[in-house]
Amino acid sequence: MLARELLRQSPDRVRQALTDRSADPAPVDLWLGLDADRRRNLVEVEELQRQRNEASKAIGERKRRGEDASVAIAAVGETKQRIDALEKELAGIDENLRAVELALPNVPSHDVPVGPDESANRLVRTVGEITAFDFEPQAHWDLGPALGILDFERGAKLAGARFTAYFGLGARLERALIQYMLDLHLEEHGYTEVLPPYLVSSDALVGTGQLPKFAEDLFKVEGNDLYLVPTAEVPLTNLHREEILEAADLPLRYTAYTPCFRAEAGSHGRDVRGLIRQHQFNKVELVQLVEPERSDAALEELTVHAETILQRLELPYRTVCLSTGDMGFSAAKTYDIEVWLPGQQAYREISSCSNCGDFQARRAGIRYRPAEGDKPTYVHTLNGSGLAVGRTLIAILENYQQADGSVVVPEVLRSYLRTDRITAS
RNA sequence: GGAGGGGUGGCUGAGUGGUCGAAAGCGGCGGUCUUGAAAACCGUUGACCUUUCACGAGGUCCCAGGGUUCGAAUCCCUGCCCCUCCGCCA
Question: Most buried of A4, A351, A410, A424 (most Cβ within 10 A)?
């Protein structure tokens, strides 16, 4: 949610932000109208309430003295009716205002490249050399089944397209990656591990921005106000919803492994093969709640935290800064980390690290007190994948594959996997 | 699933439908005292919104949402959450 002061004082900036995102700027004017209506109405209601309170007080006093108050009671009746009518109107305005506010995306940071889509993304850095092969590298959807560690047909038998069953060292590799990533973030990057619920309420999803606009991307539990988490960003960021934190508590750094569930509505036909786009995938997430002045630096750090995993796994990747047209709804600035996949001869997203500024904090009511006696202000929230586990497994299979179809296990994972090579059994 | 008991300010905990945003205690902050600290004493101590250049003024909030009433923390309804006992269950 955007600050109301921003909308009132700099509507042009918000209109421009929407245009840069290839979104319709019209809601800004709708908002301005509703806001003016609201304030006009509110001033009137409050004046009438003041009159009513005064009258009620006088009635109470008369009654206490045993005097007749029926005249005064009758006199207040009209005020009461006007209050009721205006309050009803006000509730309607508030509801509309909130609906408009909740649908407005965040304003991009000034240093974000302006452009319509991913073609305008800015390359930040490229790390590692593209893996060279003296044979034709296979895609993971061929390697995995051949090794007996990924079974797409049986996954589909259980749950349909975009579900996969892992077997043997495949399952173990996925588990090892989760463990390795968590350990690294705990031990070296100062995060606190959290094991959150995998189902969350609509309030939590509104807090991080998935709702109300993107309900069709979510799996909802029938008959309950519960949704399968699309990312651990949702539970982690919402841990402190409606709280006022102390400055000394910040920064808060949380990491969690969760499965992630996405309906992938509107992506029919995209990445239908293999593990890349699944309805259920595993992810280790990084979330930070920080003081506003610290969030720019925190995004750089968090992105490096995610990149470190790829460096330790010795996987080639590049980092790009998303353009205004390619960013997510809640983000002010986003770095995507893209890993090299030899099977596709392409860099593919494996992590997305965003600074959401106070956008989510406003929605979720996460504040802190800068100093004793200060008014509470909104924290800044950041999140990033550290990393998407399924896609990391793909990257390992494709980059570490050998001419004989076996896969060498990256050095740092050998103690977790208890083997240095995955071969067909 | 059955039966019962609760949800009040940072915490504990009062609160006959009417000067209650809410007693009291604790904690926090400021001060007096002290060489310093502790103790004691005094004062202070919520959030949000509107309005004002400002001082200030006003409104809302006692889990949430409805309702009754001139007036609701207090009465009624619904929901959510917590606790105890029983049943069931990983």
Answer: A351
